[in-house]
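Why show two proteins at once? Because comparison is the fastest way to build intuition. When a single record is shown, students tend to memorize it. When two are placed side by side, the eye starts asking what differs. So, the first record is below.
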Amino acid sequence: MTGVVVSEAAAEIEKLLGLHPKGFDLSLDRITRLLATLGDPHLKLPPVIHVAGTNGKGSVTAFCCAILEAQGLSVHVHTSPHLVNWHERYRLGVKGGRGQFVEDAVLADAVRRVADANGGEKITVFEILTAVTFVLFAEHPADVAIIEVGLGGRFDATNVIPRPAVSIIMPISLDHQAYLGDRVELIAAEKAGIMKRGVPVVIGFQTEDAARDVLIETAERLGCPHAIYGQDFMAHQEYGRLVYQDEFGLADLPLPRLPGRHQYANAAAAIRAVKATGFTVSEHAMEMGLSHVEWPGRLQRLTDGALARIAPRASEIWVDGGHNPGAGQVIAETMANFEEREARPLFLVTGMINTKDPVGYFEPFGGLAERVFTVPIRGSDAGLDPVALAEDAARAGLEAEAYSTVAEALAEIGRITEEDSVPPRILIGGSLYLVGDVLADNGTPPT
């Protein structure tokens, strides 16, 4: 598969996947035991920005990193899942420059050491990989570490950090109901579990009042200084610029490089969070961060590559890993904004896994997408059958048909639009696993 690193580290992780259960088993007991055996590396980290939420975690992480690096700080970043290669989960900070994915030999060594320390005890692979995060970040000096929650918050393996510099809770909506609860206030309570007594909390834009209320109540109960989007800080577009405002004043900034109006609120949460860390952050650093931020697989434009060349000539192709109803809403709004700016017929190429709500994801595209092409996902055993997914799209009121591969879907879009005078706009998404497959096949893995 093009773009995938055949690596020593990947081989070590594959061994673990054969020994330990896949998925999540929410508890802190196993990770705490393992970290104690390793010498408690999670207690030896630089100041931590801890990020939770249903949507926007990756974007706010990217904004925080870009702003802090523009200030000249070295920044470690942990995210999950990866798109193409395991190394993407671990970006190690570089003084005065952009962080780099961990080198293969370094990752392989860390994985082996953590697995050996576990001694064959019952554990999940995610917990081992989280312990690897702490080992790597403790052993490589940096000014800041940004650590993204894997699932939920309260019992997520990252939540052993006793006192982060700041906690961020991004937008909360229904997702992972089997683990976190079937009401948004229950999910909010789980996400709020990363709050620590007296530690500053930044609460990003919340579409659900019930979620916001739970977050505020928890912050107040724990005595956490908290800043709430829309109340204590905010951002809006004005004359092609982003105007950011908080209790410290105004900043006139460029619009974020990441597309979509929802990124205004994400950028605002990042600015407020980096201020809460105690590091001095200049307006110039904010400007540079917003202008140069990168976040692969989230409304990423494909302009070249093996798959892009199959699509109709002059197509506008986007890939996005959003996979729940909340993500579907903001992505559809972005596509509608693109349509206002430049009208093109919109086609969706979609693959999803069986823990998601496909109908809820598709519904916001009603009246916007011409047609849906559903495809399988290689990167997950939980991928939905494309035929069943097409039926879900039809239940959402969209015309849909199943295809065997993304390449076949793109070729079909080319066939049905070959007589059209306006090239199509194509959105490939519905799952980070699908986006990973696409970036690998296209020959454009994250760097």
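Second record. Ask yourself what differs from the first in the token line.
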Amino acid sequence: MSLYGVLRTGVSGMNAQSNKLGTVADNIANANTVGYKRASAEFSSLVLSSGKGSYNSGSVVTNIRYSISQQGPLVFTTSSADLAVQGNGFFVVSDEGGTPYLTRAGSFVPDSEGNLVNTAGYYLMGYPLTNGNPNVTLNSLDGLERVNLANLAMSANPTTQGSLGGNLPIAAALGDTFQSSLIVYDNVGNKVQFNVTFEKMTDFDPLAPANQQWQVTIDGVEPAGWTAGPFALEFDTSGQIVAGAALTPINIPNGQAMTLDLSGMQQLASEYAPLDPIVNGNAPSQVDKVEFGKDGTVYAVYEDGTRIATYRIPLANVPSPDKLTPEAGNVYSASIESGNVQVGFPGQAGLGSILSGALEQSNVDMGEELTAMIEAQRNYTANSKVFQTGSELLDVLMNLKR
């Protein structure tokens, strides 16, 4: 056995325990860091070949592992912009230059420009819903934009769709009319009121039931003078609508073409009873608050109660999350070992859900870290004794010639 080998092995052991102490120090320092994932030092032996009459001591190789896939405890906050992932997946964020990263740190707040940014300065990325639901490219982050709340200022949206359900009396006589009013919105948010009039076009004969026809007309109240229709509406002998369920187009003055869905109407032996009038669009209103759905949809809630979907936040994942490359600021980038990034929406394809008003805490266990620190200290001391003994024996050997 070479004494130089003993020194080398002792140094290797001290270096390994120094690495372990380094991970413990980082873990303890970040015990209260939102979204932090603990690091650990794992060891493997490096064995050198030896002859029958001698032994060549090897060394210890340190492998650093990160418990990225282990979820930390969730704590609830009073801020709706605090987001946490419950289950698999990561938020997609970007730095100032637009480079994308993955993170579980969801403590977002609006910056001076309205962008949602976390404590490390990374911007939350999402798909804008200005043109309907986005098409996600599963293996690419193309199409993502910074989630910006400043763009949700005062807004007026024209009505394009509406619906009206209820009952029309089957016993109504030829020429009987029933009327209801609806409020919709034009391009600049002005209220437009119109009457929906149902006029019976056939007599009902209980001895010879047949399909019943109605005529629907739209008459403007404010502004007055505009009309739409007439439209034909038909019910079968069981009172279910069979023709004319969607009235289109209804051209709103200074507005958009509107489709009025009447599929919720029935014709039963009861009085006229309009139900569930629903229209989209809204008058000019300030944003009162922002809500985040579990499916990643970001809603702007206006002062008049209107809720408009503005963004949808995706989640990303990789085949081996523990092999992601950690970067400064609690973010991760994909590596060869982790596999390529896969993108989807919360609740789909094994991805978790997004919780608003919650944060994922560090997954560091302080008791475990303090135990590991004591073990590393003792092992470091033992390895230093090996090095010291080898050094003393080497001095003895060098002094034999004197």
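One difference worth noting in the second protein: The chain has three domains: 3-70+363-401, 74-155+286-360, 161-279.
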